[in-house]
Amino acid sequence: MIDFTEEQLERYSRHILLDDVGVDGQEKLLQAKVLIVGAGGLGSPAALYLAAAGVGTIGIIDSDSVEISNLQRQIAHFTKDIGVFKVDSAAEKMQAINPDITVRTYKEYLCAANITKIIAGYDFIIDGTDNFPTKFLVNDACIFTGIPFSHGGILRFNGQTMTVVPGESACYRCSFREAPPPDAVPSCAQAGVLGAIAGMLGTIQATEALKYITGVGELLTNGLLTFDARTLTFRKINLARQKSCPVCGEEPSITHLVDAEQSVCELKSEPVAAPC
Amino acid sequence: MQITVNGEANELHEAEVNLSKLLEIRRVESPEMVAVQLNGEFVDMENYPSTFLKTGDDIEFLYFMGGGSR
Amino acid sequence: MLRVKQEIIDEIVEHGRSEAPLEACGYLAEKDGVVCKCIAMKNIDASPVHYSMDPAQQFGAIRSCRAEGLAIRAVYHSHPETAAHPSAEDIKLAYDPALSYVIVSLEESSPTINSFIIKNDKVSSEQIEIIRAEKMTTTITADVFQNLRGIGCPMNLVKTKVAFSKMQSGQILGLILDNGPPINNVPRSVIREGHEVLSQEQLDDGAWSLLIRKA
């Protein structure tokens, strides 16, 4: 049982007041460890909200530095941060919001060789990556290690998210199987994205992390939430675990982690397939 | 034939429609960026031509969407 | 000073009303300085403007009081149509200066009760102190006590919840809450969460003292 300081009681009062969160829930948050993959459009709002919520340890991984074109939607980064590593920029804002928490930064590109070691010990992972090979890598590594995660994606005016609890609910591969061919993926320069929808989606992902840690409500499992900001319509598409899934199905063909052909590990920080 | 696409009722006038044809009818520009679910089951892209629709089918197009880092 | 239990006042009024429009009369008996018994007597005059007790009944009443360890303290009677003041005849017939004379007036819808000491035809008012029934609550002591004086909403509720989180189910939390929003909000919230408010009373400074059983 944590003895909350007067300052913590005030800081987290709006959580403690919630019947379903309360003192116990806040204690769970302070003891939780969440890893955010990507300090970009989705990772930024998720990082800020999880820091504000008092998630005790937050890891954030990204090998990129802040560019001026990021600032339209990656709200953890300010104009003064151009050229700074995104994880350093994000960590600074997170600590400024809440000095109570520990932020671990990883200036690495997540790949088959390092992912298992990096995600070990985290309770929940937020996928805010910009490319499909890494999304599938996160999915597979989470299935193998049993760590639940939130998938998120945005494009133009649309967003999608689902929560995966390995062994219990449909995984990303159940529905999407494998990364689309790189030449089919629209790049950010071509497609564009409405900045604020990164916030809409990243905050949903942060909410799922908070729900998982505190045990409140029902997670967005076995369902893909999609929205179109132009009409502001939300849809939840029911998904089910697929026996034919190559990673969590009955006869999995993927039994160990491998980097996709276009893995950015080899390409350093210049991935070919980079949607937004 | 009455089918449901992305949660909305659709009337198809063609007698025989496979999934490849449906993607055409729905003007899906890059089929590589869509995963198809038929009545809750994933359908492999190579099976689109041989998968013919029947009345009452429920089809979801699941679009690949990336993150927001770059 | 005439000290009378609340329920005796109620009995006097009730007796007066039951006899109206005739005057009702009776004795008040005390123990340990507090009137705790009302002995209704028959008004043998059966009159709306004066009363007389039946001597045989009087002696019987005095005897039974002694047997119960009680002492006759006062004579009461009702004025169905007039004020709660002794009439000329009341003064003349007040033969016992050791007793108080209690008059209940029923002329208004809410009754008035006054007490008088009448000596040598001189009337002086006597103060009546009404003793309210003591609460039949057993004393409950709090297992944990939180003084939340000066702590506003919602931090008072936050601190209450923190206190509960360290307690076992069934234990009692004692709280002091400020008047106003705190007393209006905190009990409602703890009840909503399933806890039981056992008591709630206002203190002299306006703050409230509560006992709450943890769910």
Produce a short descriptive summary.
The complex is a heterotrimer of chains A (276), B (70) and C (215). Chain A is an alpha/beta fold and 276 residues long. Helices cover 34% and strands 16% of the residues of chain A.
Kindly describe this structure:
In chain A, 34% of the residues lie in helices and 16% in strands. Chain A has helices at 6-11, 13-16, 22-31, 43-53, 86-97, 115-119, 132-145, 172-176, 188-191, 195-214, 264-267, and strands at residues 33-37, 57-61, 102-106, 124-127, 149-155, 158-164, 223-228, 233-238. Mean pLDDT of chain A is 92; it is low at 263-276. The mean pLDDT of chain B is 90. In chain C, the strands form three sheets. Chain C has a six-stranded mixed β-sheet with strand order 3-2-4-5-6-7. In chain C, strands 9-10-12-11 form a four-stranded mixed β-sheet, covered by helices on one side. Chain C contains five helices and twelve strands. By secondary structure, chain C is α/β, with parallel strands linked by helices. Chain C has two domains: 2-131, 3-Layer(aba) Sandwich (Cytidine Deaminase, domain 2); 144-213, TusA-like domain (Translation Initiation Factor IF3).
**How many beta strands in the DSSP annotation of chain B?**
5
Determine the oligomeric state from the structure: heterotrimer
> What does the radius of gyration of chain B come to?
13 Å
* Anisotropy-based shape of chain C: elongated
Major sheet description of chain C:
6 strands, mixed
| CATH fourth-tier homologous superfamily of the largest domain in chain C | Cytidine Deaminase, domain 2
